[in-house]
Amino acid sequence: MKIAIGTRNKAKTAAIVNVVKKHFEDVSFEQFSVGSNVSEQPFSNEETRQGAINRALNTLKVANADLNFGLEGGVYEVDGLMYCCNWGAVALQDGTVLSCAGAQFVLPEEIAIELRAGKELGPVMDEYTKEKETRHHSGAIGVFTAGLINRTEMFEHIVKLLIGQYLCYKENIL
């Protein structure tokens, strides 16, 4: 089974590889840098979902793999609080797209201020933590859950949902 990953982000890639290997045998993985065709910092659930779908479809176009994954992180506001949201999509060779959302958690106001000013979460988190490439490791979720869940684990949950939906789709349940 050929698996295409529409990112070179280490946390997202590890999530896909970790989950797929548990559910399928004889798989090969290939990574692609594809666009999300949305803002660098998606600012709603809808835009974040669309970014994941676009990444999956763009990956399908270049790889035509059995499963073509797109994962996207974004933010949105409710009642004056800014939340981080995460979406995933998988495009099948026949053009079918399955999507789902994962963990959503509140960001501190000092982070929200920076995002409202037009900055992207990844670099803001690097500045906040005084670390480099936070988005490839713990991510905001790791920082703001006291390390109880990291970005790879968060995306693993989304990939599990996608694989489960795919298995149901194959059985004509979806």
Automatic annotation (TrEMBL):
Alphabetical list of Pfam families matching this protein: NTPase_I-T (PF01931)
Non-canonical purine NTP phosphatase/PRRC1 domain segment(s): 6-161
Cofactor annotation: Mn(2+); Mg(2+)
Catalysed conversion reaction: XTP + H2O = XDP + phosphate + H(+); ITP + H2O = IDP + phosphate + H(+)
Highest taxon of the lineage: Bacteria
Natural source organism: Ureibacillus xyleni
Molecular function GO labels: ITPase activity; metal ion binding; nucleotide binding
Family in the record: Belongs to the YjjX NTPase family.
The keyword Hydrolase belongs to this UniProt entry's keyword annotation: yes
Enzyme Commission number(s) of this protein: 3.6.1.73
Residue ranges that the Swiss-Prot or TrEMBL entry lists as coiled coil: none
Protein name: inosine/xanthosine triphosphatase
GO BP annotation list: nucleotide metabolic process
Keywords attached to this entry: Hydrolase, Magnesium, Manganese, Metal-binding, Nucleotide metabolism, Nucleotide-binding
